[in-house]
UniProtKB/TrEMBL annotation:
Gene3D superfamilies: Bacterial Topoisomerase I, domain 1. Pfam families: DUF2726 (PF10881). It comes from Vibrio thalassae. InterPro entries: DUF2726, UCP028063_topo_Znf. It comes from the Bacteria. Residues 38-158 form the DUF2726 domain. This is DUF2726 domain-containing protein.
Length: 219
């Protein structure tokens, strides 16, 4: 029995010596790398260009963003649960994240749909993204490849989350009676704190309009 113990002790000692030696060798070894290619596919690049056109200077677009750089599990007394929750998102990413250009605070996540058939892995990833965004209260937009050619529609989707107002278009007229419109701020209800346009003939004309409604560019 004593001999077996001695053998096991020697084996463990050899293991640690070998591990230390190889780790040291790994630290000093120079590896060679090469560029894999474009970060985005040609279709994704076309969508990115459309997104950049739609956002303009009102947002910063990040792509292939690790989830752990955007969200983190809520604090819990159970450290094991926290590490499990973190490991779930550690290997996944967001296709596109649009951030506030002043603070770099994430404003909206965009999941790109290339139009190909869904496989099991993609379905599970989409479920994860939906659950994470809902839990973290981050707006999520699903965007198809078709939007690569519909900048106006893409801007309307983003307008609910990003201020895309253009200074030269802030002067508006009521679409119901033609009177000038004025900007007010909601003081109560679901949209408290948000700006909106209302007809200057209130209460004679009750027409209102979302402050951030995006005008279509004339074709």
């Amino acid at each position: 029995m004593f001999e077996i113990f001695i053998v096991l002790t020697l084996l463990v000692g050899l293991f640690f010596v070998a591990q230390k030696y190889f780790v040291k060798q790994e630290d000093t070894r120079s590896y060679l790398y090469k560029v894999k290619g474009p970060i985005l596919s040609s279709a994704q690049t076309a969508f990115y260009n459309a997104l950049k056109e739609a956002v303009g200077e009102h947002g910063v677009i990040l792509t292939k963003v690790s989830m752990t750089n955007v969200v983190t599990p809520q604090k819990t007394s159970n450290k094991k649960q926290w590490f499990i929750a973190n490991s779930v998102i550690a290997k996944s990413y967001f296709d596109f994240v649009v951030c506030d250009p002043r603070t770099m605070q994430p404003r909206v996540v965009i999941e790109y749909d290339n139009g190909q058939k869904l496989d099991k892995g993609k379905i599970e990833r989409q479920k994860l993204i939906m659950q994470v965004c809902k839990s973290a209260n981050i707006p999520l937009i699903g965007a198809s490849v078709k939007l690569s050619y519909q900048v106006g529609k893409l801007r309307r989707l983003l307008a609910a989350h990003i201020d895309l107002i253009e200074p030269d278009k802030e002067v508006r007229f009521c679409k119901r009676c033609g009177s000038p419109m004025i900007i007010r701020t909601a003081t109560q209800g679901e949209f408290e704190g948000r700006r909106f346009f209302t007809c200057s003939r209130q209460p004679m004309c009750q027409y209102t309009e979302n402050y951030n409604v995006v005008f279509d560019d004339p074709e």
